[in-house]
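Support request from a user on the community tier.

User writes: "When I paste my C-alpha cells into the form, the page sometimes reloads and wipes my input. The last time it worked, I copied everything first. Here is what I submitted, just in case something in the input itself triggers the reload:"
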C-alpha cells in the first residue's frame, strides 16, 4: 500500500473537505479523489460518506484513521532511523585500545564520542597491539588504538598522537633533581620493564633506545602495568622508561625527567579495516581525530605532548 494514499486519506479525514485537503497536500483535487478511491478499493470498504455539500467518515473510516496515522508515524520513524544510520548516529562499534592510552588520548576520544553519538553502542576492549590486529583481521574489532609501527598492509592506519619518552627515577637517585637526562646517563642503573609478550614493538623500542646510547639495559624486574612499574620505581628497585603521559601518576618516591636525546617519542595510531568502512566507523574516526587535535602539553603533568592527526602510517611490507 502506497504511503501517498494514506497521507491523502488522513488529510481528507482531518479537513473533511476534498478541496482544502488537496490544497494542503499540494496536489490537484481529482488526483486526491483518485487516491481515496484507490485506497477504498484496496480495503474493500467506503471510508467516507460524501455528497455535494458534506464529507463524513464512515465507521470503517473512523477505525482506519487511527491505523493509517500509526502506519505513517512508523514509516516516518523508519525514515529518520535510516537517515541517522546514514550519518553514523545509530548502530554499534567495537573499539580496541592499548592500556597505555588510558593515560593520554583514550579518555578524550571516548568522552567526546559518547557526547556526539549517544545512541551508538560503544564496546571497549583493552588489548595489546598484536591482539587488536588479529581481532581486526577476524572482524571482531572495528577500530583499534595501537603503537602503529607494524600496521599490516591490509589495514589502514593513521598516527594521531605523539609524546616524548620520560624516565621515572626514585627520588633518591643522583639524577632526581635534573629536569632532563640522556639515556646514556642511565647505563649503570637497573631497569624495570614490562614483559615483551605484552608488546614486542614497544619493548624493542625501549631496548633500542638504550642500544642507541651504547649499552644493553640491566632489566632486573618486569611489571605488567604502568602503575606497577611506577610502584617498583618508588620502591627503589630501578628506573623505567615510560610515555610522558604516565607522569600524571604522581606518587611519593618517584620523580620524572625528560629524555634529552633527539627523536625519543612514542606514537599512537588508529587502525581499521578499510573493507569494512561504515558511517559509524567514519564518525568514530573523525571524532578521534578531533579529540587528539584538542590535546596539548598542558593536558599532562609531565613532558610536552605533540599531537598530529592525518599522518599516514606506512604499511609493513
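"...and here is what came back when it finally went through:"
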Amino acid at each position: 500500500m502506497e504511503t501517498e494514499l494514506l497521507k491523502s486519506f488522513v488529510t481528507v479525514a482531518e479537513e473533511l473537505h476534498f478541496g482544502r485537503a488537496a490544497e494542503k497536500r499540494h496536489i490537484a483535487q481529482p488526483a486526491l479523489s483518485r487516491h481515496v478511491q484507490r485506497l477504498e478499493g484496496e480495503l474493500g470498504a467506503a471510508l467516507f460518506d460524501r455528497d455535494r455539500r458534506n464529507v463524513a467518515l464512515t465507521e470503517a473510516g473512523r477505525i482506519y484513521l487511527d491505523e493509517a496515522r500509526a502506519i505513517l508515524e512508523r514509516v516516518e520513524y523508519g525514515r529518520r532511523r535510516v537517515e541517522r544510520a546514514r550519518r553514523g548516529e545509530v548502530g554499534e562499534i567495537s573499539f580496541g585500545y592499548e592500556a597505555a592510552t588510558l593515560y593520554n588520548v583514550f579518555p578524550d576520544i571516548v568522552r567526546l564520542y559518547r557526547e556526539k553519538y549517544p545512541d551508538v553502542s560503544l564496546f571497549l576492549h583493552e588489548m595489546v597491539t598484536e591482539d587488536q590486529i588479529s581481532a581486526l583481521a577476524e572482524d571482531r574489532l572495528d577500530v583499534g588504538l595501537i603503537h602503529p609501527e607494524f600496521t599490516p598492509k591490509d589495514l589502514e592506519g593513521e598516527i594521531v598522537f605523539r609524546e616524548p619518552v620520560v624516565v621515572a627515577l626514585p627520588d633518591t637517585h643522583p639524577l632526581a633533581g635534573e629536569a632532563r637526562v640522556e639515556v646514556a646517563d642511565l647505563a649503570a642503573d637497573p631497569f624495570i620493564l614490562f614483559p615483551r609478550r605484552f608488546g614486542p614493538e614497544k619493548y624493542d623500542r625501549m631496548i633500542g633506545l638504550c642500544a642507541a646510547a651504547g649499552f644493553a639495559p640491566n632489566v632486573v624486574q618486569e611489571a605488567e602495568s604502568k602503575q606497577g612499574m611506577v610502584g617498583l620505581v618508588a620502591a627503589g628497585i630501578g628506573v623505567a622508561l615510560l610515555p610522558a603521559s604516565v607522569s600524571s601518576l604522581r606518587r611519593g618516591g618517584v620523580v620524572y625527567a625528560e629524555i634529552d636525546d633527539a627523536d625519543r617519542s612514542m606514537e599512537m595510531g588508529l587502525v581499521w579495516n578499510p573493507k569494512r568502512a561504515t558511517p559509524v566507523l567514519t564518525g568514530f574516526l573523525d571524532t578521534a581525530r578531533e579529540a587528539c587535535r584538542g590535546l596539548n602539553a598542558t593536558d599532562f603533568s609531565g613532558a610536552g605532548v605533540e599531537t598530529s592527526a592525518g599522518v599516514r602510517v606506512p604499511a609493513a611490507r
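Agent notes: The reload is a front-end session timeout and is unrelated to the input. Residues 3-86 form a domain with the Arc Repressor Mutant, subunit A fold (CATH 1.10.10.10). The two ends are 56 Å apart (CA to CA). Escalated to web team.
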